[in-house]
Amino acid sequence: MVEEQPILEASDLYKTYRVGRVSVSVLRGASIAIRTGEWLAILGASGSGKSTLLHLLGGLDRPDAAGAGVRHKGTALRTMSAAQLDRYRSRSVGFVFQFYHLLPELTAIENVLIAAMVRYTRLSYMQRSAHLRQRAADLLEAFGLVDRLKHKPSALSGGERQRVAIARALMNDPDVLLADEPTGNLDRKTGEGILDAIASSRDIDRSASSEAPARPPLTIVMVTHDERVAERADRIVHLADGRVVEGAPVGA
Amino acid sequence: MYQALLTRRYLTSKVMPLLAVLAVLLSAAMVLTVWSVMGGFLNMLLASGKSLMGDVLITYPVRGIPWYEDLLAQLEDDPAVAAATPTVEAPGLLKLPDGSVRMVQVVGVEGTGYDKVTGFRKSVWWRPPEPGDKPVPTADLRTFIPKRYLDEALALTEPDPVTGDPKPAVVLGVEVSGYNKRNRDGTLTPRDPTGWWEALGLQVEGFNKGAWIVQKSSPGDPDAPPQRSALDELPFLIDGQVTLSVLPLSQQGVVVNVEARRLPVANEFRTDVYEVDANTVLFRLDALQAMLGLDEARRVKSAGELVPLVDLETGQERFDAPEDIGVDPARATSVLVAAAPGVTPSELKEIVKARYETFAKTRIDAPPAQFVQFYTWQERPGVRTFVAAVKKETGLVLGLFGFISLTAVFLVFAIFWAMVSEKTKDVGVLRAVGASRQGVARLFLGYGFAIGLAGGLFGVGVSYLIVWNINAIHEWIGRVFHVYIWDPSIYYFTEIPNKVDPLHAIMVLVAACLFSVLGALAPAVKAARMDPVRALRFE
Fold first, then answer.
1. Nearest CB to A89 within list B6, B434, B539
2. Is there a contact between B1 and A88 if contact means CB atoms under 8 Å apart?
3. Do residues B63 and B164 share a domain?
4. Which H/E stretch holds residue B429?
5. Is the pLDDT of residue A103 over 90?
6. Superfamily of domain A8-246, CATH level 4
7. Residue A177 confidence (pLDDT)
8. In terms of residue numbers, what domain contains B529?
9. What is the pLDDT of residue A252?
């Protein structure tokens, strides 16, 4: 196998939070390398800093000054301006959260489309709007929500909401899907369904969707405290004491 | 792009933004309504201040301007002048039929010329209604008034009861006599000062074949049917008599005499400016000039005593006639000038001044321009202070209402602050999918603008509705609650101004949008500065 550059990597991440007068050191020199196309699970107990790691990988937060920081396809996030980081979050990554975080006033399809509305300027969006609408509908259909396009989140079950969230995360065709405890708020059966959906997202045809001719396969980084959930991934790493500990890859 | 969609949804899916829109609506409606009505009152007051004045006034009191006919001709030559008319103004004493005496300003005018400059005809009160007048209630006396009352007012004459010849008459302001009672609907009911009419229970029914049909009910027997009779004249002040006294002055300004005349009253006029209606008596220019000694006179060489001489040739007695050495011209203390369309009073004043200077050069005994006073109607002393006071009041009221409307800004601010706190998670989500800080700020600012626009548009609409129908509303409040806010029997306006200036409406709308954006500013900045991680952690 050709040694490829990891699509996402982090070296020596430090992150400290201030809670009142107390400083809490969440990450203390965490390092990780994520290969293109893999499904990585980061396993850790509550409060271990796994969400923080995910936020740093996704450019939603900045690490402390020490350490090299996060690199995406070789580019250090540290060197990016605020606008460039916004663009990174819009185009290169897609977030899925434990509590779904859908916009309550928008319908399912609008919740998916909002990702495109943020990405494109008004003019570009108007030019592509039919195509984008079709893509959003297709994504929701792929996740079994074809009858729910016009429903608001309050009319959807937890599992359905999470699937809308996954569709939203995939709308702009990112390189990496970042999932933070995606099944954490769901019962086991529904959770399985979500994990199936996440698995199937790798199969969604990416060549037909965006302008670039050849797209690398979707990379998935999932954070969880549940071992059974983690086992669905290709590789598991552990997060403990603020550092990443490599585990053996699942399967052979 | 996403801001537009979210703004639309935010506006329609919650109650709070509706309250914000309502607050802006009420403030905008309040400010525009007050502005339109108060502004309308100011315009009405300003226009009424122009009563019986023309646009520019040339005045040289007491002594008057001689050869004014020349001046008039020169003025009317100028394309900026529509018409000019001479007047004589002097203080006088008026004795009324009930014996009371009033101090008045007597103004001698030339009827038709005066009407051309000042629109006097419209001010004549006891005349048949003409197109352009405010509607007259059918029971009002004026519907029965024959046209000759108007003609007599314009000519300032009354026919002599014996010979029928026209005799000079006066036209009084409606408040001079105090005999006219103001009614709520803006009409006047004349009262007979001697009480004779009321005591007899007379009531006017109509006018037929040159006579007034009067109904008389018997005070002793209320059940008896009223009797009808025809009267040639109505027993109130019109067609009555007054005594007018004026003080002619010598060239040195010393009182030489008192001139008093018993005069018939031809009509009354009404300008709705109390000071004018209560203190002014109009009289024929030539008659007043004669009374004051300002009329044309022959200047004669003093003959001392008339001595009979004997003609040396014929032996006959003859008298040496006084030698004519010239004419002492008639004088007018003021000249009123009306501007041609498109000429402002200020522009006209300069033109009139220039013309007067030319005139003064041609006539030695005309007073030089620097001693003569030139006023636009707004500058006339009595009017100027009055207008300034009203303008200040309007400004004050508007300022207060505007200040109160600031509460709308704070209301929008409070609602937005609460909304941003509520929408914390949404902000986190938007930032997670790649929205910029500026984008988030723009979302809330645009939302503020949308609320301002919606509230402003509806507020302006509501204001139009209220102002257009304000007279009906005022009537309704009066009928139902028995509260007349602008009682025409107390104030001098019979109608509340009911027009909205579109420019004012636009200004109020722009202000509504601006202040709403202002109210949303701090909350928008707060939303933009929010840390997305903390926002998302928010449950």
1. B434
2. no
3. yes
4. helix B424-432
5. yes
6. P-loop containing nucleotide triphosphate hydrolases (3.40.50.300)
7. 94
8. 2-47+385-537
9. 39
Distance from CA of A250 to the nearest CA of B (A): 30
- Output Rg (C-alpha) for chain B, integer angstroms: 34
Distances (CA, A) of B147 to A176, B94, B162: 97, 27, 21
Determine the pLDDT at residue B396: 87
Chain segment A31-45, per-residue pLDDT in tens: 999 999 999 999 988
Looking at residues A229-242, what average pLDDT do you find?
A: 90
Burial annotation B392-413 (CB, 10 A radius, 16+ → b, else e): eebeeeeeebbeebeebbebbb
Among B130, B84, B537, which Cα is nearest to B334's? B84
- Residues B298/B253, Cβ–Cβ less than 8 Å: no
Q: Which DSSP letter does residue B134 get?
A: P
Question: Same domain, yes or no, for B172 and B253?
Answer: yes
Whole-number pLDDT of residue B135 = 73
Q: What integer pLDDT is reported at residue B227 of this predicted model?
A: 66
CA-to-CA distance for B481 and B22, rounded, in angstroms? 27
Same domain as B441, residue B364: no
Residue B178 Cα distances to A49, A120, B49, B102, angstroms: 95, 80, 21, 10
For residue A106, give the nearest of B9, B428, B532 by CB distance.
Answer: B9
Contact B320, B303 (CB under 8 A): yes
Report residues of chain B scoring pLDDT below 50: none
Residues B248 and B360 in one domain: yes
B508 found inside a domain? yes
Domain ranges of chain A: 8-246
Residues B26 and B152 in one domain: no
Identity of the amino acid at B320: D
- The tokens 């600031």 sit on which residue? B406
Query: How confident is the model at residue A213, as a pLDDT?
Result: 60
Give residue A1's pLDDT. Answer: 46
Instruction: Indicate the burial class of B191 (C-beta count within 10 angstroms; 0-12, 13-18, 19 or more).
Output: middle
**Do B283 and B156 share a domain, yes or no?**
yes
| Rounded CA separation B17/B11 (Å) | 6
CA distance B19 to chain A (A): 18
- Residues B96 and B163 reside in one and the same domain: yes
Give me the residues paired with residue B241 across strands.
B264
C-alpha distance from B528 to closest chain A C-alpha (Å): 12
Residues B87, B107: contact at Cβ < 8 Å?
yes
Confidence at residue B204, expressed as pLDDT on a 0 to 100 scale = 65
B188 is a domain residue: no
- Inter-chain touch A118–B439, beta carbons under 8 Å: yes
End-to-end CA distance of chain B: 27
**Cβ contact (<8 Å) for A106 and B5?**
yes
pLDDT tens digits, B89-133: 999 999 988 788 999 999 999 978 898 888 888 889 888 888 877
* Cross-chain CB nearest to B13 (options A55, A87, A105): A105
Q: How many domains does chain B have?
A: 3
The answer on B212 and B198 residing in a single domain is yes
Q: Quote the CA–CA distance of A5 and A1 in Å, as a whole number.
A: 12
Task: Give SS3 for B513.
Answer: helix
d(CA B189, CA B500): 33
